[in-house]
Fold this sequence. Notes:
This protein is of the alpha+beta class. The protein folds into four domains: about 1-160, MutS, DNA mismatch repair protein, domain I; about 160-230, 5' to 3' exonuclease, C-terminal subdomain (DNA polymerase, domain 1); about 240-370, Dna Ligase, domain 1 (2-Layer Sandwich), CATH 3.30.1490; about 425-520, no CATH class. Helix content is about 30%, strand content about 25%. It has helices spanning about 15-25, 45-50, 60-65, 75-95, 110-115, 120-130, 145-150, 165, 185-195, 200-205, 210-215, 220-225, 255-275, 310-325, 360-375, and strands at about 10, 35, 40-45, 70-75, 100, 105-110, 140, 245-255, 280-290, 295-300, 335-345, 380-385, 395-400, 425, 435, 460, 465-480, 490-495, 505-510, 515-520. A hairpin with a 2-residue loop joins strand 2 and strand 3. It is elongated, with a radius of gyration of 28 Å. It comes from Nocardia aurea. It holds the Pfam family IMS.
Amino acid sequence: MRPGRSRVLAVWCQDWPAVAAAAAADLPATRPVAVLFGNRVVACSAVARFEGVRRGLRRREAQSRCPDLFLVQDDPDRDARLFEPVVSTVDATVPGVEVLRSGLLVLGARGAARFFGSEEAAAERLVDAVSALGVEAQIGIADELSTAVLAAKRGVLVPPGEGAGFLAPLPIAELAAEPSLSAPERADLVDLLHRLGLRRIGDFAALSPAEVASRFGVDAVLAHRLARAVPERPPSARRPPPELTVEYRCDPPIDRVDAAAFAGRMLATALHTALAAASVSCTRLSVYAETEAGEHLSRIWRCAEPLTPSGTADRVRWQLDGWLTRRDRPTAPITLLRLEPVEIAASGALQLGLWGGVGEENERARRALIRVQGLLGGEAVQVGVLSGGRGPVERVTMVVLGDERVPAADPGLPWPGRLPEPAPAVLLLNRPTVELEAADGHRVRVTARGLFSADPMLLRWGSRQWRLTGWAGPWPLDEHWWSPESAASAARAQVQLDSSDTEVRVLLLVYLDEIWRAEGLYD
């Protein structure tokens, strides 16, 4: 072991999203469970894997492989809330826990090994403590945090100084397998390395740091350090100044999760305002709370990248949700909230915006919207998320600002019959009625064969009318034809107006129940 460096112990609860979903639904351990994001499996239980269910499968394929499969949508709030008892149990056994994400936490191994006699004894004690909650866990110990996490997924205690040897035979995909240890673009790097013939972590580690730095990006340098089992990020030598700590005295005390989440968003905004003024970013965050009963609650969250305001607000919401709703001993109303940066980095560690800075414009806009939420309520501010669907309205899912941006349907599916690109710039949700007329003055309809009854020449909208210089379509659409109760038939068409007195030149029309309606406007 290198002198002066402590070992890291990682506790990993396998398939935690599926375990949490099963616990929330009070399902028996023998019931297969799969968690969906959109329409694809992102996590499944061991029983479901035995039946052939895998991550990445579509809903229908997963159900065809396992008809008894219990399906539930991904819910980070649920995962964090149910993981809090596990974190509290581990922290009561060995203090100093840091949460990487729901289902994964780390702590210093040196103190635990000294207290219990050895690293093996400490690992056994922690497994027993978590098992008492009805949760299975695996322990990994290594010199570096990333190595310890990968070791935990295999239940291995890596001897001191042998991290590189443990990592060398592992597939190169393991560099991007754990989202809490890498940026999202790590998957692209792994794909590139695999196509270059570097199939194992040891192959990548054999490259010199100069070769990696000259041919790849910054994230590749960090991944190379992970592959060589050297420190990915040295401990911060700066002690965060006290003026970076922000707190909020709750009057009246907070006893509801929605009120706690709002207070957390407000504190996150204040914290990042202070961090931006000091030109630093936060990589480890302490969430502290005091209650009416005199309890002092604290938890540390560690991140692979500098925290953003939304990331900070999410972690505060998850933590407060876990404290306020724990089943064994509900927390009394919270009287004080405090956010304290435990480790900070220079502002250069942040991703710069397109025009320089660290996204100040976006943050100012977000803070303004949060103030609007405070005035009008949380549901008053919503943002659009790209969703799956055939019409332009179906392709937008509105979610409350600050909530998880989960689409109603998977946008990556083929969606045959979808409206051709580009999409309308403005959607008319009320779909006002219009009329299409042919050259002889008769109304234009869509026939049973999906064609215009005559070429459209004139469009009437209320008291106004325009001649048409062009049109496209119609595109007929039959949805849910297999179900008489939900079956729907429609057709869409685009028409170009011959007009110089309006900025709108092209309209999207939809034909429903033998009536033409305006659905969208093109720039």
